[in-house]
């Protein structure tokens, strides 16, 4: 099957190319070939490539910067998904689109299910929600995957920032009252590859929204501590340089002590039961996802 993957240089797009290329004809595009802020460019690219399936992980993800760039954020996260869906429907293609936990306000005490009321707190979250609604308004086979706290070997992300800052600084404090599931791009790509096969066998039925994160949850502080613990183990095994900050010395703070332009949901935990019940698929535990990424630790040298 010919699959168009957007955001080829992003964390998820890069991982998807590797996971899908063994079984499908993957056409991966970057901003130059597929500018999400250019409606005509999107239409022309899809009409030219004519894929059977479009997978769209590309997005405007600079959450804080989005507060001062709402027009561009909505162009990429809200308008572009509608155009992609329209063009995919026109050529009879399906669409897998990535969304976010930021469509929720984080006030629910338990993990969110797909039918829970949405209430985004930020421009980014609002733009992603409008993108979801736009896709759902168009008649085509579609799956919207809400994920959270994405990181990996490729691209800029929390894991790589923690390793860098821990090598540079003598003190580091991380927010400990926001909870979610760190989700590796590798876990996402491997499970999407399976999802494509199952969805294809089911004749692209079961359209809708699915929560799609690594299992379990932790805080940003808990995630940072786990990253450092894993690094310390690898450093001992592989003779990697020691970091200035250790898992035993990293500090914690609350959200109020680290104000940001965009508000974050304090509870970003997503219930993935619908994915399992519908497709028989589940992403591994977040700790397992982290270890998969950390096995490639030399790439951070």
Question: Can you put this structure into words, describing what you see?
Answer:
This protein is 41% helix and 14% strand. It is of the alpha/beta class and 301 residues long. It has a domain at 2-155 and 183-216 and 268-285: 3-Layer(aba) Sandwich (Rossmann fold). The strands form 4 sheets. A 6-stranded parallel sheet has the order 2-1-3-4-5-10, sandwiched between helices. Helix 6 packs across helix 8. The longest helix has 22 residues, at 70-91. The mean pLDDT is 95.
Give a brief outline of the structure.
The chain is α/β, with parallel strands linked by helices. It has 10 helices and 12 strands.
Task: Please write out the topology.
Elements: E1 2-5, H1 11-20, E2 25-28, H2 39-49, E3 53-56, H3 63-66, H4 70-91, E4 94-100, H5 123-136, E5 142-147, E6 150-151, H6 158-168, E7 173-175, E8 179-180, E9 183-184, H7 185-201, E10 208-211, E11 218-219, H8 220-238, E12 251-253, H9 273-279, H10 286-294
Parallel strand pairs: 1-2, 1-3, 3-4, 4-5, 5-10, 6-9, 7-12
Antiparallel strand pairs: 8-11
Helix pairs in contact: 1-7, 2-4, 4-5, 6-8, 8-10
Describe the biggest sheet?
6 strands, parallel
- For the termini, the CA-CA separation is 37 Å
Structural class: alpha/beta
What's the pLDDT, averaged over the residues? 95
Q: State the fourth-level CATH superfamily of the domain at 2-155 and 183-216 and 268-285.
A: NAD(P)-binding Rossmann-like Domain
**Strand fraction:** 5-15%
CATH class of the domain at 2-155 and 183-216 and 268-285: Alpha Beta
Total beta-strand segments: 12
| Rough outline | globular
- Which residue ranges are poorly predicted, with pLDDT under 50 across at least 5 consecutive positions? none
């Amino acid at each position: 099957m010919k699959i168009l993957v957007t955001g080829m240089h992003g964390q998820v797009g890069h991982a998807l190319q590797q996971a899908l290329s063994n079984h499908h004809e993957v056409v991966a595009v970057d901003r130059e070939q597929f500018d999400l802020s250019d409606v005509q460019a999107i239409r022309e690219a899809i009409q030219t490539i004519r894929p059977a399936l479009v997978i769209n992980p590309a997005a405007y993800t600079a959450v804080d910067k989005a507060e001062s760039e709402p027009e561009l954020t909505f162009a990429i996260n809200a308008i572009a998904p509608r155009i992609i869906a329209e063009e995919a429907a026109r050529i009879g293609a399906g669409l897998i689109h990535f969304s976010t936990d930021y469509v929720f306000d984080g006030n629910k005490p338990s993990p969110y299910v797909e039918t829970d009321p949405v209430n985004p707190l930020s421009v980014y979250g609002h733009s992603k929600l409008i993108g979801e609604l736009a896709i759902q308004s168009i008649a085509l086979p579609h799956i919207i995957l809400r994920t959270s706290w994405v990181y990996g070997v490729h691209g800029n992300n929390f894991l790589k920032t923690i390793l860098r800052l821990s090598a540079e600084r003598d003190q580091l404090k991380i927010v400990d009252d926001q909870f979610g599931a760190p989700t590796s791009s590798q876990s996402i790509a491997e499970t999407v590859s399976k999802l494509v096969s199952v969805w294809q066998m089911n004749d692209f039925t079961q359209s809708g929204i699915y929560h799609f994160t690594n299992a379990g949850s932790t805080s940003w502080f808990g995630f940072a501590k786990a990253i450092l613990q894993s690094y310390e183990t690898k450093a001992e095994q592989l003779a990697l340089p020691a970091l200035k900050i250790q898992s035993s010395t990293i500090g914690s703070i609350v959200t109020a002590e680290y104000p940001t332009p965009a508000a974050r949901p304090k509870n970003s935990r997503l219930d993935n039961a619908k994915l399992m019940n519908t497709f028989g698929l589940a992403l591994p535990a977040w700790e397992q996802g982290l270890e998969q990424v950390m096995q490639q630790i030399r790439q951070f040298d």
